[in-house]
Amino acid sequence: MSDSLDEIQAIFFEECAEGLTVVEAGLSAMAAGDVSRDTIASVFRAVHSIKGGSGAFGHAALLAFSHRFENVLDEVRAERLQPEPGVIAVLLSAFDILSDHVAAAQGRASVPVDGPVLAELERVLLGKDELQPVVVAEPEPESAPVDEFGFEPVAVSIEDFDHPAEAAGWSVRFRPSRAALANGGEPLLVIRELEALGARIVQASWSGLPPLRELDCGDGYMDWTLAIPGEVAESDIRDCFDFVASDSVIHIDRAFAEHDEEPASVLPAAPAIVPVTSSSAPAAEPRAASSNAEMTIRVDLPKLDSLLNLVGELVIRNSILADRLSPADQEKVELPQLSRLTRQIQDSVMSLRAQPIRQAFNRVPRMLRDLAAETGKTVRLEVSGEATEVDKTVIERIGDPLTHMIRNAVDHGIEPADRRAAAGKPREGTILLSAEQKGGRIIVRVADDGGGIDRERVRAKAAQKGLIDPDAVLTNEEIDQLICAPGFSTADTISNISGRGVGMDVVRSNIEALGGRVEIASNPGQGTTFTMILPLTLAILDGMIVRLGGQRYVLPLGSVVESVQPAPGQVQAMAPGHEVIELRGQYLPVRRLTDFFGIRAGARPPEDCLVIVIESDTAGLVGLMVDTVDDRREVVIKSLDRNLHPIRGLGGATVLGDGSIALILDIEAIVAPTPRDRIKGLAA
Amino acid sequence: MSQNNERKIVTFSLGHRMFGIDMSMLIEIREWEEPTPLPKVPSHIKGVSNLRGTVIPIVGLAERLGWEPSAIHSRSCILVVSLAGQQAGFLVDEVADIVSINDTQVQPAPDVEIAEPGVISGLVQVALRGDASGDGGTMISLLDLEALHITRQLDLAA
Amino acid sequence: MSKCILTVDDSPSMRLLLKASLTAQGFRVETADDGQDGLQRMQEVRPDLLITDINMPKMDGFQLIEAVRVQNEFRGVPILVLSTEFSEEKKARARAAGATGWITKPFDAGKLTAAIRKVCP
Predict the structure, then answer these.
(1) B50 touching C, CB under 8 A?
(2) CB within 8 Å: C14 and A184
(3) Which backbone phi and psi does A448 adopt, to 5 degrees?
(4) Tens digit of pLDDT for each residue in A9-30?
(5) pLDDT tens-digit readout, A376-411
(6) Euclidean distance between CA atoms A142 and A165, whole angstroms
(7) Which of A66, B26, C70, C72 has the most crowded Cβ, counting Cβ within 10 A?
């Protein structure tokens, strides 16, 4: 119990150590002439932090001293005190005493005698022109001002007043203003607080409520009148409306004698901060789990996230560094090696968030049992690679596609038992479910030993639906891909099990929307295998924010090799719509994102753009032309297909810190020719 | 479920026509805010917006029904609805009011102005607050938003 | 469903302290270590209450509060400032930025809880 507090305190002392280092470095810099705002600010913050923590942990002497020290630093920071050599010398002495105080707080030394240095600090303070009242105050935890809260009632006319039954009581009327509501003020809570003091609502009026079309939901339209017993002190009532803005007044009728009562006492008492009864200690200590045979270590998730951050930072610095080198230097072996190493580190760290895919596979046996009951087809399941580790959100996202594929396999793939027997197969069908990790991808396969895809039927259906030209010549693979085409369904009747027969195109769209792809391999009479290839991490994407036509987009950083500011002539057009960029002797195709998205904005000359060189699986190195690059950010992927549908070229969207949406680009879709074009092309 | 089949309808206008949707599917009414445009979508999908962390499509309802796109003005709003588990926002010209109607008041939909079947589920006469006409109210068309199939990827004809 | 509080403070020990204290009261606690991170976390976590320090690198508490209030969807979210400072001008500044209330450090758990209950039922 107090262990966890000890642990937190230990961390606090670590922080103190770091803070002291910062202070020392900062003051030395200042002594050497660097009195920049940043340096001073860093010193101030470090001492401020130490002060804050010392109060929390009850180190009174440290608190008192650091508070005085901080006051002086605040004056320097606010430029009300000049950091001349004399002042800096005093600060350095103060730093020494501060270190001693910290050591004393840790029990490593005895409390230093700080009188003389305190006097020096005082002297330095008084030596400047103005005296700030806040500087003189002693920080007593007990005398910290009472919590201030409140809401901003609006001035209300005095005329119609409800006088309460008791002549000796209070009548309070208020109407929350727009500003009060905007700042999180909740009238209900004010009323509850007043009720806790004994108030009761006499009248609540909503006559001010306009018709819906005129309603401004940010404004307050209701007003309340309450009656409060006379014994309640006016100050207590006013406390409920504290944090009052200058433009609002609360109307309270009848003054009364003062009473000494803290509003806080009316509220249920809460335990003091020491000892902390929570048993959840921040798992910051690495302690090997002795119960496991494998060596494992418990890691604090925030630490992992911050490590991920740093790695992402590393990747981008890498890119910028490469940019700064001359072409000749860029070719030297060290740079590609560095890039490769960085990428490897990134992959390793990302894999730390992984969990076995078993969780997603667990639902399949039950599904097969249900399907067996519905279709009468018994299917045996073989699973391999269920221990393959994938990012936890792959597990979440792969569920639906998996369901579709299993259902399809049972519904369309596996033949009825009699037909199988006639073909010399075991009556029971088999589905092989496997997962493996290859490179930076997860490969999940659903293979059935059914009859394979009936290509004649598929082809005929596709022709009938106008998806292909009747005499088009298609390879077997192309026919197989047709079952994923939107609007296609081999079921003549809409099957209950496969939903509305749109299963496979939804699966493909979903997987593509996640940055993956679906491959189909089928052997007539023998079976079909669906392969889902997914990137390793889904939920959180390390992205490069780029701007195009005023909109922000996210490029997955994992695909980014470098960014180039083209020199005049570096980008040339080989043919209309086909540009290339010359980079270290190689010619790379350039795609303008404006073209891909059909944005008709005027084409900017290449020299005004940036070319981001990306590495794609299907098309090698390609340059993407954007307007500018913002920064690198880790973004949370929000799927578009949840509420809309997958859109080719987009791997989702993300909400940036300011609430705006940035679309996430799907590199493979952007650089590859669209399959639909190919099919349509066959019809041409 | 009330016993006399009463339900609440949110009424709004698209151009000069008045419509209503069942309030049970309404999540909220928002002020118009420029959505983030999406590439390669039909013009009635204006883009996506951030609804408390969820990315939802914003649909120009007038356009979707085949009419002139709504002009944006100070009273334009977005009706955020939940349709079969998915959320979407529909741009309307102006929200009128919330009224209670009885199923018995609903008349069958007339010859359609709208090509798709099922989109208009009926007509009903209601009295709206602030209505200038004194003759018993306004005729509103009840919309079945689910019948619009917003989330089906339409085959792009072009 | 317990309420979720997002605490923003650049001091790890302070974050841990707050987290321990609030978790003991039955709240779910998420943390961020500076204003910018806090802003992003607001989108991801969507807390019932935001508690923030003032003095932080990159983006300070005032800027964070302003950036949060600018977004319509966060208009009604209560925001408490938790800081060692207590000058009237800082409080006025917080109020102007859109804070709901101010608590001074070092805090007493009882006062903290009372304050939270006032703005977040």
Answers:
(1) yes
(2) no
(3) -115, 160
(4) 888 888 898 899 899 889 988 8
(5) 888 999 999 888 877 766 777 788 888 888 988 898
(6) 40
(7) A66
